[in-house]
Amino acid sequence: MFTFWKRPPREEGISCVMRVKDEADWVRLSILSILDFADEIIFVDNGSSDGSLRMVRELKEGYGIEKLKIFTFPEIDGVKVKTSDLYNFSFGRATKSWVFKWDGDFIARTDQLFSIMELKDLWGEYRHRADVFRIGGPNLFGDHLHYFYGPPDDIEFCFERYLFRNRRWTHQMAPHYENLVLKAHRRVMHIGPMANPDDRRVYFHHLQGLKPDEKIAGRATLSLWWKFRQENPGSPKTCSQWLAEYWGTDDPKERVKKCMALFFETGRIKRYEKIGGAWGEYPTLMKPYLQNPRYEIVYENGAPARRVTHADRAVPLAGER
C-alpha cells in the first residue's frame, strides 16, 4: 500500500520579499516601515557594493529583528545570471501563505491616512476571495517633490501584482523586463488610483529616483541591455561593447551624464503636487530626510534643468537627526 504525502500548507501570513542591489539610501527605512505589517521579511542581496548588506545585518542585530532573514545571491549579468533566477530564488525562500513583492526603495506609511496596516486589515478580510492584490504607489523621481510620469500627464504609479497568494508562480524573460508569471491567480483585487482615479489609497511611496545618478542610469541601461539580448540572441557583443556603442562613449561617467540628461531633455520630470489632503502625507519615517533632502531639482528659465546631489547629507535612520 502506497502512502502519498502532501506538502504541509504554508503558515498563514505575509512574507515581504526584497531583492536588493545598492539601495543604501533607503533600505533601512524600507525595512523599518514594514516591521509591523510583515510576518516575515526575506532580504536577498545580489552583489551590493555600497554597504547595503552590512546595513541590513546591523539593523537586524541592533533592533533584534528575528523575522528578518538575510540571504545573498550572485550579481546579475543578464546572461549567465538573470533577474528571473534571482526572483525565483528570492520568492522561493518565502514561508508564508502570501508574498508581497517589496522593493528596497519602497517606504510605507506607518500611521495617518492610508497606513500600511490598513492594507493588512484589507488583506485579512478579502484574502479568501482574492488571489492577487494589485497596489500602486507614486514613483518619485529626481527629488521628493517630483514624480516620473507618462502620458496622460498624470502621476505614474508603480503598479504590479505586488501582493499575491504563494502558489504556482514563476519568473521568465519578457522582451523588455523579466516579468512575474502567476498561474492559477485568477481573482484579482485592484486597489488605488490606477484602477479607479477616485480611489486614493496609496500605502507606500516608490523612491525610484531618490538615489545616486549611477544607480538610476545603471537600472535604465540594464533594461535596455536585456531588450537588446532578447532581440539579438546570437549577438557576440558584450554588455560593455554594447554600452559604448549605444551611448557613443566607453567612459562610464559620461554615460551616466547622458542618461540623466535625457530625463530633463524629454521633459519627463514634473512637480508632484498631490501629497497631502485626500492623498495623505509622506511616510512619517521620511520626515527627518524631508527637512534636509539629499537630492534636489534645479530650475532654469522656469523648467527643471538638472539635479544636485548633496553628498554630505546622509539619509537618517528613524530617530536620528
List the helices and strands and how they pair.
Blueprint: E1 11-20, H1 27-32, E2 40-45, H2 52-63, E3 68-72, H3 83-91, E4 96-101, E5 106-108, H4 116-126, E6 132-138, E7 146-150, E8 154-155, E9 157-165, E10 169-173, E11 178-182, E12 188-191, E13 204-206, H5 213-231, H6 239-247, H7 252-265, E14 269-271, H8 287-290, E15 295-300, E16 303-309
Parallel strand pairs: 1-2, 1-4, 2-3, 6-12
Antiparallel strand pairs: 4-9, 5-13, 6-9, 7-8, 7-14, 10-11, 15-16
Helix pairs in contact: 5-7
Fold and architecture overview:
It is built from eight helices and 16 strands. The chain is α/β, with parallel strands linked by helices. Helix 5 (213-231) packs across helix 7. Mean pLDDT is 85; it is low at 1-7.
